[in-house]
From TrEMBL:
Domain SRR1-like, chain residue ranges per copy: 135-318
High-level lineage: Eukaryota, Fungi, Dikarya, Ascomycota, Pezizomycotina
Pfam families with a match to the protein in the record: SRR1 (PF07985)
The species this protein was found in: Emydomyces testavorans
Source taxon at top rank: Eukaryota
Protein name according to UniProt: SRR1-like domain-containing protein
């Protein structure tokens, strides 16, 4: 395999992908997680099955160092500005350290979100889309970031607390329409969470899961939320489940070069030590792909997410289509 050219590797990947070979499976994710728990020290090895079925080994290099050129020191004049208004703002203060501070900051953001027009629109959209009692058992939020670290000063855009507030809104709404109120669980996963975040979220009823446990929880009775994650959430979900509802970055139309966006996900699965790359592949850490688009086209109805680029960016709501008596999927 070491003698294969870049073109041969890409063609093999393309053929496997187009044939429907899953990039991610729950069994594979679970296996890697268990190996890392048992052999996660620097210098240890874990075994992973590649996309073509070949077993390859990966060295654990956590904490490792590499030689580099002599460090240089450079001074720059920087003015911190609000990214929306462009007005100068005060330098950021420390991150919040105690659960009490995080709780106070998050509660204030929840109140602001609940009182916003965007929240009202979201509730109205979801209420209209979910016209019958829902069979949702869990709500799972990915990469909502640390509330403690999100806190800077009065000019902070509050993305993290607003995203957690949205999780609570969805949870409360679905509980009211559930056939069995009180049985829906709410999970959140982000390696960035600090202890103060975990304590605060737990107090609100949100269970924090360690990576990759939240992916293992996703099934067809789930609601999935993610906003600009640093992991390929769309790719993983497309392979492992068809959630009842998804709220994530809007899936766009196909554009020239889209295929390259999945190479960074795929290249290590077929040829772990391959060094090829493409600038187009680095445009997103959660790219769209033909598989994601097919999932959306065939199984979901897209609804508009309230415009709020500051806290959420460009999002969309995807509601799974219902199935008619003859087995055909129909729009709700």
């Amino acid at each position: 395999m070491d003698s294969e050219s870049r073109e041969e590797i890409e063609q093999k990947i393309r053929s496997l992908y187009e044939a429907g070979c899953p990039l991610f499976t729950k069994d594979a994710i679970r296996d890697v997680s268990e190996q890392l728990k048992q052999n996660g020290d620097t210098g240890q090895e874990i075994l992973i099955k590649g996309l073509d079925g070949t077993i390859v080994d990966f060295n654990i290099e956590t904490g490792g160092t590499q030689s580099a050129a002599e460090p240089e020191l450079e001074y720059l004049m920087v003015t911190l500005r609000n990214k929306v208004t462009k007005e100068p703002v005060d330098p950021p203060v420390r991150a919040l350290e105690t659960a009490e501070e995080v709780e106070k900051y998050l509660n204030a953001s929840v109140q602001a979100w609940e009182g916003s027009e965007q929240c009202r629109q979201l509730k109205s959209t979801l209420a209209a889309a979910i016209t019958t009692p829902v069979k949702v058992t869990k709500i799972i939020g990915f990469a909502c970031a640390s509330v403690a670290v999100d806190y800077y000063n009065e000019h902070s855009d509050r993305r993290s607390p607003f995203q957690h507030a949205l999780l609570l809104t969805i949870w409360n709404l679905l509980e009211k329409q559930s056939e069995h109120p009180g049985t829906i669980a709410c999970y959140a996963q982000d390696p960035a969470y600090r202890e103060a975040d975990k304590v605060t979220l737990n107090k609100l009823g949100i269970t924090v899961l360690e990576d990759p446990e939240a992916f293992l929880e996703v099934d067809d009775s789930s609601v999935v939320f993610s906003c600009a994650p640093n992991v390929p959430v769309k790719q993983i979900i497309a392979d492992i489940a068809r959630p009842a509802l998804m709220i994530w970055d809007k899936v766009g139309e196909y554009q020239e070069g889209d295929d390259y966006k999945i190479w960074w996900v795929l290249r290590l699965m077929v040829k772990p030590k391959a060094s090829f790359s493409s600038n187009k592949a680095e445009n997103s850490t959660d790219p769209d792909s033909s598989r994601v688009r097919e999932m959306i086209k065939n199984h979901y109805q897209e609804l508009e997410f309230p415009s709020d680029r500051v806290h959420f960016g460009t999002m969309a709501i995807y509601v799974r289509k219902t199935t008619s008596a003859n087995g055909n999927e129909v729009q709700k």
